[in-house]
Design goal:
Structural class of chain B: mainly alpha
Radius of gyration of chain A: 22 Å
Distance between the termini of chain A: 45 Å
Strand order of the largest sheet of chain A: 7-6-8-9-10-13-14
Oligomer: heterodimer
Number of strands of chain B: 6
Shape of chain B: globular
Largest sheet of chain A: 7 strands, mixed
Number of helices of chain B: 12
Structural class of chain A: alpha/beta
Helix content of chain B: over 70%
Number of strands of chain A: 14
Strand content of chain B: 5-15%
């Protein structure tokens, strides 16, 4: 029996080996990874680049393939991204392109769609991205769904809806997200008492917070970059506000905790991406083995914990390579067909990831509570 | 809420005022708007954060008051030195060759970009925590809450403005500064070392920017490389409002801009917060270009 089993195993290995050998990557093996590795959000680009590089390294080692990652610094600037796109679309060795945030992705997506090249954004959550064309996708949850899921998680965790105040950074994503949070919160019986937007990089939140304090809000939801959120939370503590603080997912990272320190205790972070410290992962009932391995491999490779951007880039690049292997093709239409059919994907950047018939990614919401410098999962 | 907003506005305004004084001093002496001043403010705060982390803080705890003082003094010295170097290597050559004022202005912009990028390279793009230097509790008046750091900011601003006024109006070097501001050539004929006066002005401007940066870090407890550019426009508007070249004008301008923007952000919309600085700038330039405290210049034909 053992002999037969061994023979069967060898047969499977030979067949799978043959399949690997069939995929010819000699002419087309490059994943063009666009990331802001310099400029104001270089930290995002650095993390994303590291996540993507780790994915390529591990995939090649495991499968004997020769995928290559080429990083293009788009500086989070749409003009720069368009210039880079012009270079990439003429490069025949490019298998797929992975742009970063919504702004730069929207700037280049139609260029790659017209060039017949798969465009798979690793951080863009704009609801407009999937609509650009059949070759355009994002690994980030669509803005159309995130806010609603956050409101559900908050109301359930806080035992009901009451008075909500919302501050959000002045961009499309945060605006849409904040409005969805408020809409759902009101549907669940709550009342919006204050809503205001602020510019990215705002340090002084005291005028808004003093106004919010007057409203008697029981929940303050802040959508923005972790540094802005940290400033806002620190100042709310200085004003001795008793409101429950909650921020959107970009705060689920170590730099946020470094800035805010113990003042973050008790605050919530609503996200769809896990956090990767050992304690956080231990608090996550549904954390898979792949998440633990990713966190540990990333630490070994770079000497630090990954963040959500690293996780998204890791998943994004892995899916592109898996698509090529699965379809035994480097054709963008085949890769796009594979991505569109993803259901219940067990990635490291979220739970139960799937694409709907609009090519929009959905996944589960997670609510963390900050306690003693760690994010502890309290929902689901 | 109004009292809370006013005190918050005065706190921010005091920080604007300190940097605006530096702007005004440089403008008085060289008739130059030093666009690197915002970057000096930012790098001053980073110097303080760096020295505090090296000398004064072990983990999350402070070593001793003396070590904090040493760290802050080092930051001030380095900022003063940077102010000196900025003038010595990016402006003096242009002045010696009789280059137009526009060339100096562009040079100061270039220095601003160089400083911002140097900080990005040295400290990275991520926001950094700034240690809490002043934690002596809070004061409650009605529903309003005032932090001890706000009182420190106001006190430091008041002491600095008084000290600078005394230096400029009561000391020999102050007299030389005022003479240089009035007429560069005649001052030179009177034996004043113009280069030395300009250097001192830039050193003082750098130190003031650093003090403001330290207070900013202590108040907001975080720093990022963008704070200089954000601050620049408000400080420039403050100097224009008060009358560029006028020391009391810079103080009043800073306080007025700080209070107005806070009240507008609290009662109308945060969206108008930065607009107000530009609005003040445009209105003043249209109706009173010399500012509230500036003197009207008459150009003789």
């Amino acid at each position: 029996m053992k002999k037969w089993f061994a023979l069967l195993l060898v047969g499977v290995l030979i067949l799978s080996g043959t399949a690997i050998a069939e995929l010819d990557l000699s002419a087309k093996n490059k994943i063009a990874f666009m990331a802001p590795v310099t400029g104001g959000i270089a930290e995002v680009g650095r993390m994303g680049r590291n996540g993507a590089a780790l994915a390529v390294k591990q995939f090649n080692e495991a499968n004997g393939t020769s995928f290559a990652l080429e990083v293009y610094d788009e500086k989070n600037d749409a003009t720069e991204a368009v210039n880079i796109a012009a270079l990439i679309q003429d490069d025949p060795s490019v298998l797929a392109v992975s742009p970063c945030a919504s702004g730069t992705t929207m700037a280049v997506a139609s260029i790659f769609q017209d060039a017949g090249l798969l465009c798979y954004s690793w951080a863009g959550s704009s609801a407009d991205i999937p609509g650009v064309g059949d070759l355009v996708f994002s690994i980030a949850i669509s803005q159309k769904y995130e806010g609603t899921k956050f409101a559900d998680a908050l109301v359930e965790s806080m035992g009901g809806a009451d008075k909500i105040a919302v501050l959000h950074v002045a961009n499309d994503q945060a605006y849409q997200n904040a409005n969805l949070v408020v809409k759902r919160y009101e549907e669940l019986g709550g009342t919006k008492v204050y809503m205001e937007m602020f510019e990215a990089g705002t340090t002084d939140f005291s005028p808004m917070l003093a106004a919010i304090k007057e409203t008697g809000a029981t929940l303050l939801f802040v959508g923005g970059d972790y540094a802005d959120v940290a400033n806002c939370f620190i100042q709310s503590k200085a004003l001795e506000m008793r409101t429950q603080l909650c921020s959107s997912g970009s705060s689920a990272c170590q730099p946020f905790l470094n800035i805010i320190g113990s003042q973050a205790n008790g605050s919530y972070v609503a996200t769809t991406i896990p956090s990767f410290s050992k304690i956080t992962l231990a608090s996550m009932k549904n954390a898979g083995e792949n998440m633990l391995t990713f966190a540990s491999d990333f630490m070994d490779e770079y000497g630090e914990s990954p963040d959500g951007y690293a996780a998204q880039a890791y998943d994004c690049v892995n899916i592109i390579m898996t698509a090529a292997m699965d379809k035994q093709s480097t054709d963008s239409a085949d890769l796009a067909a594979y991505i569109a059919s993803i259901e219940g994907y067990s990635g490291v950047s979220g739970f139960n990831m799937q694409y709907n018939n609009q090519k929009e990614l959905t996944k589960e919401a997670i609510l963390f509570e900050v306690q003693d410098g760690e994010f502890l999962q309290i929902y689901p | 809420m109004l009292l809370q907003q006013i005190v918050n506005g005065i706190t921010i305004g005091s920080m604007y005022a300190m940097v605006a004084i530096g702007y005004s001093m440089v403008f008085s002496v060289l008739e130059l708007v030093n666009f690197a001043n915002g970057s000096m403010f930012m790098i001053g705060a980073y110097f303080a954060m760096f020295f505090l982390s090296v000398f004064a803080i072990s983990g999350a705890k402070f070593a001793s008051g003396g070590m904090i003082l040493i760290a802050l003094v080092l930051a001030l010295l380095l900022s003063g030195l940077l102010g000196f170097l900025l003038e010595r290597f990016s402006l003096r050559g242009l002045r010696r060759r009789g280059a137009p004022k526009l060339a100096s202005l562009i040079s100061s912009m270039g220095m601003s970009i160089a400083i911002d990028n140097a900080v990005l390279l040295l400290f990275g793009a991520a926001s950094k925590p700034f240690p809490k230097l002043f934690d002596m509790g809070t004061i409650h008046i009605g529903k309003a809450v005032f932090q001890s750091v706000q009182i420190v900011v106001l006190a430091v601003a008041a002491v600095l403005v008084t000290a600078l006024s005394l230096i400029i109006y009561r000391t020999k070097i102050g007299k030389a500064m005022r003479a240089t501001a009035q007429n560069n050539e005649v001052s030179k004929l009177m034996g004043i070392n113009i280069n030395m006066i300009v250097s001192v002005t830039f050193i003082v401007s750098g130190v003031l920017a650093c003090i403001s940066g330290i207070l900013y870090g202590s108040y907001y407890l975080s720093l990022d490389t963008g704070i200089g550019s954000d601050f620049s426009i408000k400080v420039f508007a403050s100097a224009i409002l008060g009358g560029i070249g006028s020391l009391p004008g810079a103080v009043v301008g800073g306080l007025v801009i700080g209070v107005i923007e806070t009240i507008i952000a609290g009662y109308i919309s945060v969206g108008y917060r930065n607009t107000i600085a530009f609005a003040v700038l445009i209105v003043m330039l249209l109706f009173r270009p010399q500012g509230l405290f500036g003197q009207k210049q008459i150009n003789r034909v």
